[in-house]
Design brief:
Helices cover about 45% and strands about 15% of the residues. With about 450 residues, the protein is α/β, with parallel strands linked by helices. It folds into two domains: about 60-290, Type I PLP-dependent aspartate aminotransferase-like (Major domain) (Aspartate Aminotransferase, domain 2, 3-Layer(aba) Sandwich), CATH 3.40.640; about 300-430, Aspartate Aminotransferase, domain 1 (Alpha-Beta Complex), CATH 3.90.1150.10. Strand 8, helix 10 and strand 9 form a beta-alpha-beta unit. It is globular. It starts with a helix and ends in an 8-residue tail after the last helix. D-serine binds near residues 48, 139 and 189.
Length: about 450
């Protein structure tokens, strides 16, 4: 090898292990920096998002990203797994403690894959599922026709009562008796009320169905003790780890009956996934450790108080809250009275630095791309340190923007949006987040 080639190889090796992203890839580094500024200057009101800890992000950005570890701790298909075993065992033990259950699989890459793994473990193709309809607050993976769950299973769906927006348990029971499903799925992504897990168990028992509770949205509130746990009632519980639980993006499966361990673990791997993301699992371990601290209980309580304060403020300004309010971190605004479309409202709020997502409301006359509703949530703002009084003020600012949009017939109202954006930026500056993106 020539001296020049040797030198080049040395440089590359040195660069690979020591050079920072800023030098290696200024384009990606720059975009990450812009995202940091966006998170600093916008109020995050998307109910499924949160601001995870720097510690979680450090664990995710670690050397663990290099390791293959198919299998489970102590039983891997690759060698060199001592330390990832230690980390994955920490995640499992902390998850079990946090949710008071006997078994946990922390390998699912997402909530969606957690649900797929449970279907694979417990059902055959063509099996019958009874679940909550997407436009009533359910989730795509609960049997939507556009999702694999809706394509591979025979799905019937329950919803909320027209008169009050609460889950219609009598309807669930009647449908279960008629349909005799193999599995009932409960849990939701846009439902703001306490879910009666015990009633779901009773219904599932009447028809001898599996009960799956998907608590992706509620996990942090359950861990924080402000919502009841389904672990005592459901055969299997699935969740994400990045929403109210405030960890890295990922999924997890929990259960109590040892007889389910083999089918569930084998469904995750090799049934569905390959190598687990051990760097993300390390982030999960860190997040679960933080959620076991006493102050996480205060956080969970504040999340609910803050969502309620914001929903009340919007209600006081004449906006319809689906089901009349919230017991959780999330609520839906029905925009039909104002004649607004969710897409226009979402865009207008974003110009005012208020970030939320448009969402279908029960029996929405609009298509899912447009919608007649907006979904708001308090997890990220509460992490930032905002109080109920701040959230009441945010509710007022949202109402200002929506009123402005209505006055302009659903078109931009730049003067209102700009004025609110200024106030939001001031509020964000009072509650700083990360100072560095990496
Ligand atoms: N995308 C998540 C949510 O916003 O609720 C669910 O998949």
């Amino acid at each position: 090898m020539s001296q020049a080639a040797k030198k080049m190889q040395e440089n590359q090796t040195m660069n690979l292990f020591t050079s920072a992203l800023k030098q290696v890839d200024p384009a990606v580094f720059g975009a990450i920096g812009h995202e940091l500024h966006r998170q600093q200057d916008y109020l995050e009101l998307i109910a499924s998002e949160n601001l995870t800890s720097r510690a979680v992000m450090q664990a995710q950005g670690s050397v663990l990203t290099n390791k293959y570890a198919e299998g489970l701790p102590g039983k891997r298909y690759y060698s060199g797994c001592d330390f990832v075993d230690e980390i994955e065992n920490l995640a499992i033990e902390r998850a079990k403690k946090l949710f008071t259950c006997n078994f946990a699989n922390v390998q699912p890459h997402s909530g969606s894959q957690s649900n797929q793994a449970v279907y694979l473990a417990l059902l055959q193709p063509g099996a019958k599922i009874l679940s909550m309809a997407l436009d009533h607050g359910g989730h795509l993976t609960h049997g939507s026709p556009v999702n694999i769950s809706g394509k591979w299973f025979d799905v019937k769906q329950y919803g909320v009562r027209k008169q009050d927006g609460y889950i219609d348990y009598d309807m669930v029971e009647e449908m279960a008796q008629q349909q005799k499903p193999d599995m009932i799925v409960c849990g939701a992504s846009a439902y703001s009320r306490v879910i009666d897990w015990k009633r779901f168990r009773a219904i599932a028992d009447k028809v001898d169905a599996w009960l799956l509770a998907d608590v992706a949205h509620y996990a942090g509130l359950i861990a924080g003790g402000v919502l009841p746990t389904p672990c005592d009632y459901a055969d299997v519980v699935t969740t994400t780890t990045h929403k109210t639980l405030r960890g890295p993006r990922g999924g997890m499966i929990l259960w109590n009956d040892e007889a389910l361990s083999q089918p569930i673990n084998q469904a995750v791997f090799p049934g569905l996934q390959g190598g687990p993301l051990e760097h993300v699992i390390a982030g999960k371990a860190v997040a679960f450790g933080l959620a076991l601290q006493p102050d996480f209980k205060i956080y969970a309580q504040n999340v609910v108080k803050n969502a309620q304060a914001m929903a009340n403020a919007l209600d006081a300004r004449g906006y319809t809250i689906v089901s009349g309010g919230t017991d959780t971190h999330v609520f839906l605004v029905d925009l039909r009275k104002q004649g607004l479309v969710g897409l226009d409202a979402q865009r207008s709020l974003y110009r005012a630095h208020l970030n939320c997502n448009r969402n279908t409301i029960p029996d929405d006359p609009q298509k899912p791309w447009y919608t007649s509703g907006l979904r708001f949530g308090s997890p990220a703002g509460t992490t930032r340190g905002l109080s109920a009084a701040d959230f009441a003020q945010i509710g007022g600012m949202v109402a200002d923007v929506l009123d402005g949009l209505k006055e302009n017939g659903g078109e931009n109202n730049a003067s209102v949006e700009d004025a609110v954006a200024q106030k939001v930026k001031e509020m964000c500056a009072r509650f700083p987040i990360y100072t560095e993106a990496l």
